[in-house]
Every structure is written in structure tokens, then in C-alpha cells.
């Protein structure tokens, strides 16, 4: 669906930008060096600015608008809830909160049937760790390098990649390990099976040297997202599950980004037939129309807090407007078969399209992903796999990726770029023709990347 784009109004855009520059302190940015686009509106897979430029959003915002922008049924549900009961404190049973919890619990794997609501992903991670620590009576948490778990204090420390460096206070008990990633294998493996076996052996060694009886939890993104969409080799997550069972460790899968249809299943864990003890979620649960996240909890851990109070919660946990958006989003995803559609797009349109681009563009070192969750890794040299920009590149060093990004934008495609990667992460209900439009713009941008090889 190509949306109607409002008439250009550059003057209004300039006013929005001026107020933004004066008063908005932006996340993850050097305030004086950024020039954010002023957005005038959005619909479906598109958004537009005040100058009349329209963009196909291949980033889904921050990988969260899983059913696109302004879905009329979700907007209507939020409006209706606002008229009925706009807010109510978390200690009460509220119809829309119970219904959201039921719908989420019915879709989580195994017996993860209790839902603790938060306002986003980082809070979900903080609480999953707290639950695991109280449940086990242990304190250490193992997390992977090449991961992201959020920007609050424990979540940023669990984050394995360079985003944690600036705020790394060294949270007591956080231990990092290497998860599998064949393209840049930390174990120098030659194939996926070897990578899987070596990664599991390394994890077990890490546990042995840290002391199994001190480890409360292992947290992993089912498919690591912002760190590079690194689909784990077959058997890896099942192997981690076995290790957790062997040592009495709580297995937490962080599905804040990978959950709710993004991988072509309700939860990414379903691709690997694995049932963790806790799942953290946010983003796609209600397409981010109102902030919402949470932890899905299995029966055993939930029982820990049956007679003993759970010591944690937020004022807005399970906010009625957010829950109304979740109920409507899940209903839309069922009615419009959005999850199945995401799987189809990945298998038949986006995946093959990206692989075809890789054949023609020497700058593409690797293509990987599933569903509507793909990354292409850009390199100077396919043989050496030298990244097009160094990891954690900033300023001058990132110029090649900036050139790639601006070419995409000039061609009406809004990308998600991180380090040397372009992530192709459109809405789960993106149409085939929209994907083809995006691939055509990507094709042009990759010619720019090729000049640096
Ligand atoms: N975990 C993962 C896997 C994420 O991708 C993110 C956000 N990108 C978070 C946690 C943190 O979520 P939030 O930004 O909502 O706090």
C-alpha cells in the first residue's frame, strides 16, 4: 500500500527542527553533530518528511514497528481504551492487562505462562536477572560478546559489544563468553557443526572456571540482533538448554528484538525447538505504539514467588494503553497472518533478493538472517573479510558506511546501519513489491560500497 503523503511544508519542518535542536537531548548521539530528519507522518511501511520526501522504512524504527505505522485497528484500540480507562495502577486486575497477558502467554513456548510487564526491553532484562538470582540464590550472570541487552545499568553491562564501553561500571557477577558466529568465528571453526560444538565446549569451560554453583543465569539473544543478526548454528541453543539443566542455571532468551514475528515465528526460539526458562520481550509485542515490554516466566520460577513477594515493579507496568495496543496488535497479526507472511518474505523474497545482490557486489562479505531479520556485512576484501569500516568506527572511519546510507536515503530507502553492516529489517507485514523497491535502492547503494573494495 502506497500511502498518501501530506503536502510539503518546509516552514513547519524548520520549526520542528529548531525546537528539537534547542531542547531535545538525543540518545546515543553527540548533540552538536547530529541533524535529525523532521518526520511529518508515517503509514504502513513508509514515513515522510516536511519537504515531501518519502522513505520506505527498512529499519522498522528501531526494529519494532512489526506491523508498520498507524495500523488503523491498533490506533482505534488505543483511542477506545483511552476513552474507557486511560490508566490504572499495576496492583489491580484490569481487563485489558489480563487479556494481553493471556494472549502473550498462549504464544510463548512451553510453560512460560506468567507475564511480568515492563515499559521496555532493558527493564525486562533487569527483572529477568533479578528473578533468576532470587530463584537460584546465586549471583553470576553469563552473557555473550556481540550482544545487546539494553541501556540500563545491568542490561548495558550484560551487553557484550562496544556499546557498553562508555558506561561500563563492571557490574559484579557479569561474565562474558563467546557465542557462535561462523563468519568471524572466535573458535576458528570451518563449519557450523564445528562452531556449535566448540562454542558449547567453551561455554562449559567458562562455567567450570567461574564455579557452576555461583551462576544464576545465562542470557542470550535467540538470534543476536543489533550485533549482527547471527543465526545460531543448529543445535547450539538446545545445547545451552542442556548445559543449563545440568548445572541448575536459569536460561534466559532475550527476544526483545527477535520476538513477535520478526523471524517468521511468534518467538525466535520456536525456530530452534528450544524452551528457555524466561523470555524477555518488548518492541513487536505492540509494534511500539505505546511503550511495553515484559518477562514471560515458566511455572517453576513463577512458583518461587508464590508465597514470597517478588521485589520489583514499575509504576506503569502493564499500562492499559500499552496493553490495549498489544491485544490489538496480536489480533491483527493473527487475522492478517503476519507471522506466516514474515516467514514467506524471508524465504522467497528478501533472503533470495539479498543473496542475488551479494553475487553482483564484491563489497558484500556475508548475507544472513531469517524472516524479516537480515543483515549484510560489507567488507573491503572478501578473502580477508576486512570490515568496510573498523568495528566501533566513528567520524572519518565511518565515511564509507555514511556514503552507503546517504545513497539509500536519496533513493527513498531508510536503512538500519550498524558498524559495517546494513540490516534489512522491514515490518513483518511488508509487501513483496515494497521489498523489491527496497532491494533496488540497496542495489544502487552497494555500488557505492563496491568503490571502497
Ligand atoms: N534486548 C535486545 C535484544 C534489544 O535489541 C534491545 C533494544 N534494541 C533491548 C534489549 C533493550 O530494549 P529497550 O531499548 O526497549 O530498553
UniProtKB/TrEMBL annotation:
<dbReference type="InterPro" id="IPR015422">
    <property type="entry name" value="PyrdxlP-dep_Trfase_small"/>
</dbReference>
<dbReference type="GO" id="GO:0030170">
    <property type="term" value="F:pyridoxal phosphate binding"/>
</dbReference>
<dbReference type="GO" id="GO:0008483">
    <property type="term" value="F:transaminase activity"/>
</dbReference>
<dbReference type="InterPro" id="IPR049704">
    <property type="entry name" value="Aminotrans_3_PPA_site"/>
</dbReference>
<dbReference type="InterPro" id="IPR015421">
    <property type="entry name" value="PyrdxlP-dep_Trfase_major"/>
</dbReference>
<dbReference type="InterPro" id="IPR005814">
    <property type="entry name" value="Aminotrans_3"/>
</dbReference>
<keyword id="KW-0808">Transferase</keyword>
<dbReference type="InterPro" id="IPR015424">
    <property type="entry name" value="PyrdxlP-dep_Trfase"/>
</dbReference>
<dbReference type="GO" id="GO:0005829">
    <property type="term" value="C:cytosol"/>
</dbReference>
<dbReference type="Pfam" id="PF00202">
    <property type="entry name" value="Aminotran_3"/>
</dbReference>
<keyword id="KW-0032">Aminotransferase</keyword>
<protein>
    <submittedName>
        <fullName>Aspartate aminotransferase family protein</fullName>
    </submittedName>
</protein>
<comment type="similarity">
    <text>Belongs to the class-III pyridoxal-phosphate-dependent aminotransferase family.</text>
</comment>
<keyword id="KW-0663">Pyridoxal phosphate</keyword>
